[in-house]
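call fold(seq) -> tokens
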Amino acid sequence: MSRPPFFTLPPGARAHQLSTSRGDFAVIDARPAAPPRGTVLLVPGFTGSKEDFIALLEPLTAAGYRAVAVDGRGQYETAGPRDEAAYARAELARDVLAQAAALGSGVHLLGHSLGGLISRAAVLADTSPFRSLTLMSCGPAAICAPQQERTLRLVAALGAYDMGAVWLEMRKADGESAPAAPVPPELDAFLRRRWMGTVPEQLMATGRQLTSEPDRTAELAAVPLPKHVLSGAVDYAWPVPSMDAMAKELSAVRTVIEGAEHSPNAERPGPTAEALVRFWELSDRA
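ret:
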């Protein structure tokens, strides 16, 4: 899961509920001081939330973009039903389309990890709200075999135990497999609060999607939108060469953020924001 480096909102940003035709979604909405040159919709990944993008907000607004990071249906501070069918890929894609419609036309769409798969489905369903698509740390199909196994174990645990018990087991397993420096108390409290606020059926449904996603690269290549594939130099969910190949098939701009892994938005926000702005400027001129 992404770990935000801090939680203080930058100047010009506020947390609120975005009203759409599909219901209300919790967002962090960051606006530049001057009229924006464009609007960006930021869709988080599995076990994630809008806070995963918090370090990108100030550099994006400094470049003149309105940046809106969202909690998807059933994620953290957005409500969702206790029904896995509500989190089918098509349903989540319709949510993204509704969010984009609420923000206005010409939205630059960015999806991180699972959010990339959801964003891809939204674009394949309807390109009209979007100016461009960025897939961040997102591969062409299902996650790699070791991560599939780990994710399916999590899905099984969520079906058998409550969220608090699963959280404790996750923390225990993380400590045993990869002992690391202590997590700062503020971050530890946030990660647990986010986990406990997420609807378990959302995690179960999307976890299964991550392990079974088909390769839709050829379909996406036919979509007439500027495309960008951005990742860290290392990725545990999808091999970096698979993202290289996907970008080539998509005729997409390809960016690798050195020193970052699966969450360049949180790990190297400065270079990530610079790469995004370059791509959007190129897209706006196209």
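DSSP finds eleven helices and eight strands in the chain.
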